[in-house]
Amino acid sequence: MSADAILPPNTNAPFGASNALNGSFSAFKYPNGSFSALNALKGSLGVSVDAEGVEEEFDELVRRMAPEIADAVDHLEIAAALEAGGLSDQAAAKYGYPDVFLLAEALCEVVPRQPREPEPLPVIWSAKPATHLLRGVLFGLPGVCYTAAAGVLADRAALWVVVISLFTSWSLGQSLSYLGHIQLGRADADAAARVLRRGMITGCAIVLAVSAVAALLMGSSAAALAMAAGQGFYLLAATVLLVLNAEYALLAALAPGVVAGLTLSGGPLWTGLAVTVLATMILAIVRTRTTRPRPLSKHDLVASLPYGAFGFIAAGLLVLPLFWPSGQGHGLAALPISVSMGVAEWSLVAYRRRATFALRDNHVFTEFAKDTRLGLLRAVAVFLAVAAALSTVVLLATGAITDPAALLRYGAYLALGGALFVALVLQACGSTGTAVAACAVALVAQLWTGDSVIGQLVVNTALLAGLGGCAAVVLSQSVRHG
Question: 416 is in which domain, residue-wise?
């Protein structure tokens, strides 16, 4: 092949300019797939180079660098590889090029790009169905203890004390859960153990003080104070065990209280409940043993406050209907939502897994956004289907399946469960403020509508729709899944 086949160079360009070389490289290849540096220089630069060794050196370099060249993004990556291998501008001259970058451009033109498939990324969002289902059972079983202590809760003052304790412990538990998970995410188990133990002990002291003040102001009984304090102690200790994935230990600690609630009454009942609380706290203390102290940063402590606020507001949305005159039956309607929280965790992990795959596999933003939105819709649908099935079972078991008021009540809690699930997804993806603000507005709206099941249904449905719309926008951003 003669130099006539080569495109004419840009005569206005300086010696060795890449625009002249690019014009010639695209048209001049040897049958064996290699490129002749010598003839390229003759055609594009108009110089006389008569050294057969240059062509051989260049072709040898092509053969040696072919895998790296084929996998490179551009010629700059090839130049970096050449320099990393010890090839300088002076050494590039023996291949017929004045510098490494022009040599890299020539190599890039010779070998077609055939990038290798990347190594599969480790799957960090791995769902464990059995564990998530067990956690759902653990969320629901404490309800048996409340049913057994219905005699104490019949007094309005006692109910207020227990609810105030619930609000306090839920808020503290959410913040404590965040602090523990953030340390585990940093692969610092000692720091996690330290913050969980300190947080549990401090939280128990706060719950006891708040419950005592509430009982004193409302003139409640010692039994109500004991139940309020025990409830808070259990919730905080259980939070520690769940953060540390000690589900089976928590199940064992919960067993005495559940058995007592189902079969006993009076003193033996309270003994069983006390055993459960003490066992849970002892297990939490044992599981958080550490010999290396880790101070808690103020930044982490401040960052946990929105999670505590969410716990307070979520408790309000769930518990508020119990205080209306028509509140009887609301506690049972909330039970399917509590049990479904295990499925909620499962669906959340599955959603994060699908979003990670979408981030890796999609190269167009619109396709990624579509995949994340469909994944969110699927996750919400799975949770709502399970919660609806459990609600139907409870309605059938209680004979309320034909009661229109009961159907509205369960529907309202079903919508609230879906909204709280979407709020959890938003929190997991770094949009806690949106979830807290929307739930706070819904709580105010429920206070405004008052004792109205239809109002509760409308507010919770609007909350689900609003959070769902926000999530569809926020979670379509790739930065939320990095």
Answer: 321-482
